[in-house]
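Box S2. Input/output pair 1.
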Amino acid sequence: MAAQKLTKGRLIQIIILMIILITAFIWRTVTYQAKPIVKIETKICNLNLGNCLFNINNKQVTVTLSPPRPQANTPIRLQINNIDAHPSAIVSGITMNKRIAPIIFTQNKNAWQGEFTVPQYTHDNMIWGIDIKINDKTYSSEFTVTK
């Protein structure tokens, strides 16, 4: 593209465009209102201490971690009893803010079972969280993994 001489008309057009852009930027900055942050208090259950009990649709649902004292790089089984809906879950590291693949559940009689492993990190003990989603509601649990 060949360079063109800057004419008076082109200079006025550039200045008007810059004024419009600067005005729009200032207007959005001045009129911006942050969305309020809503904190929902949830009870987080520790799976290392035993089974977690949740009340879902007026039914007592039990979540079990096997083995109760899991270790890194070994299979860990999560079992959810007394529920009809297909659950989904995601395991994420709390100590190091790491996320691993979701848990895939299969139905076994009156329970859903899923298996996963967590990798080994530099910490001797690492806290992991499990967010279990059932019927568009999330139930949180924690467990600690040792090296």
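Box S3. Input/output pair 2.
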Amino acid sequence: MIISQDRLQLILKWLTRSLTALGIVFVLFLSGIVLIDRLISWQTQDAIYHDIADVPQYNLGLVLGTSKYIGHTLNTYYSHRIEAAIELHRRGKVTSFLLSGDNAHRSYNEPWTMKRDLLKANIKEENIHLDYAGFRTLDSIVRAKEVFLADNFLIITQDFHCERALYIAQYYHINAQCLAVPGPVETSGLSIRIREVFARTKAFLDLYILHSQPKFFGPISPIKETNLQSSPTNLPTDLKAENGEDEPEVN
């Protein structure tokens, strides 16, 4: 079939306009993602501590969960959060902890795994509270307020995660700050940064467009204020030495 010159020009013009429109949409989409990323960083930067010495006293610290092991290798995202929590308690900066994470099935229980390591560091069980339904950051932050009635606490996680968690907290009018702990030095910062940019876009959509809520709420379980004991807290020597995961217990 032979296409006339006029028809060919019309097709080329249509293709040019379509590609131009797609290009504009892509640029707008990319600009929106970058704008959301920068907005979240700018809005939360003053609520982040990078040194434990600068952290004031808090009754409650919210430790955001992650897996303790990746395969048979200790996940340093996890170990740095736990070590920071122990040191905060030892220095009298944080009295109690809310350990929030995934408890998807019997063999995977982030809150209980964190609890075991805090107990090994001689933190009293009465100062440890578990949130088994912290499936994602939004769930952990919102449930801290709605289920545990906490609206003034210190979040403990990595720097990039601090900003997203604080942004969610600010949306829900929660007076939270965050201690930024180190991340693994062996992991590519670029890949983490790219994932976080898209995670922030998803968080923005969850808050302002989708109005997403935690998967579960459950009964109210307020965390009472307790007095920090003067007895020293010892960092567990086996936190970095373990190579195999103990089977988590489920309450």
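Caption for Box S3: Residues 20 and 208 are 29 Å apart (CA to CA). The longest helix spans residues 5-44.
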